[in-house]
Design goal:
Helix content: 40-55%
Distance between the termini: 30 Å
Number of domains: 2
Shape: globular
Oligomer: single chain
Radius of gyration: 19 Å
Strand order of the largest sheet: 3-2-1-4-11-10-5-6-9-7-8
CATH class of the largest domain: Alpha Beta
Number of strands: 11
Largest sheet: 11 strands, mixed
CATH topology of the largest domain: Rossmann fold
Structural class: alpha/beta
């Protein structure tokens, strides 16, 4: 098991900060944990002293998988729910709801039933749940947050307000400062026929008036102008956010998903995925995510959860 983050300076720094933290490892409950990539990331994090794993699912399958890979389950609590998927989901979610674990993680299960169990439990807070992707990209100077490419398909203005708040709550802890948000669109001018530009402009003004909390927003901005100061200069865009954005607010789920996967596959960025808006951070990775991506999600979730203790 060799999940190495030395080439990813931000994640490596956070990992070292967590390891230096004086306190007990955090409880992490996994729904349907009999999955090789999930189990590899969880056992790695356990061995690093980040977490105390609670693994729900078919006990025999979990043990057999660990033996096959020669992984030790010492320090893991296995909660046998047999082949009852709903039982596995509810067991993991209820541990988080009851405060026995500080982080919840999706195992070998589709996102829809997993989120249905989360919503049924009451874990969701006042607003909405939204997915925040956090990227550590080689040769890129800072972490990049993208939201929402995982849960809300076509968010309206009110939903985008909540998505911004959720993303900013995570980024503020990770960055230690007020996050800069670029509301993405295909053009930088407000066009009535393009709702993304109108929403971006309204969100910018709301942020100016303090309606969205401790966050700075500008938009509409194109992807290039959001992340590249040179591109912003060429277009004559002068703002606190252009070229320096921490968070990219996607206009819809397709934009968020496609940008995220492009960074992963073409930019060699490691993506950590965390769902915000819940009483605990929720790791909602794709089943196609690598063990390294799942481990990165654990690092981000633990870092955030420790800030709340």
């Amino acid at each position: 098991m060799n999940l190495d983050f030395t080439g990813y300076v931000h994640l490596d720094r956070m990992l070292k900060d967590i390891i230096k933290h004086d306190g007990e490892p955090l409880g992490l409950s996994v729904a349907n944990a009999a999955d090789k990539d999930v189990l590899e990331a969880v056992i790695w994090a356990k061995e690093k002293g980040l977490i105390r794993p609670y693994l729900s699912g078919n006990k025999g399958n979990i043990i057999a998988l660990a033996r096959e890979m020669n992984w030790s389950l010492e320090g893991c609590t296995i909660l046998d729910t047999g082949d009852n998927l709903d039982g596995s989901l509810d067991t993991a979610v209820n541990l988080a709801m009851g405060g026995e674990t500080e982080i919840l993680m999706k195992g070998m299960v589709h996102s829809v039933p997993f989120l249905r169990s989360v919503l049924k439990s009451g874990l969701r807070q006042k607003g909405i749940l939204s997915h925040v992707a956090v990227f550590d990209i080689p040769r890129y100077e800072r972490l990049l947050f993208i939201t929402d490419g995982g849960i809300n398909p076509q968010p309206d203005l009110n939903a985008k307000k909540e998505i911004v708040r959720n993303g900013a709550n995570l980024a503020r802890v990770i960055l230690g400062r007020t996050p800069l948000v670029a509301a993405l669109a295909t053009v930088e001018t407000v066009e009535e026929s393009m709702s993304a530009t109108v929403d971006a402009a309204l969100l910018s003004k709301m942020a100016d008036r303090g309606q969205l909390g401790d966050v700075i927003i500008d938009g509409p901005l194109g992807f290039d102008n959001a992340i590249s100061s040179e591109a912003a200069r060429h277009k004559g865009i002068d703002s606190q956010v252009a070229g320096k954005a921490d968070i990219l607010l996607a206009s819809n789920i397709e934009v968020g998903n496609l940008v995220s996967k492009s960074i992963t596959y073409f930019g060699q960025g490691v993506m950590a995925g965390v769902v915000m808006g819940s009483k605990v951070p929720i790791i909602l990775g794709s089943r196609a995510d690598t063990p390294q991506a799942k481990a990165a999600s654990i690092i981000i979730a633990v870092y955030y959860a420790l800030s709340k203790k």
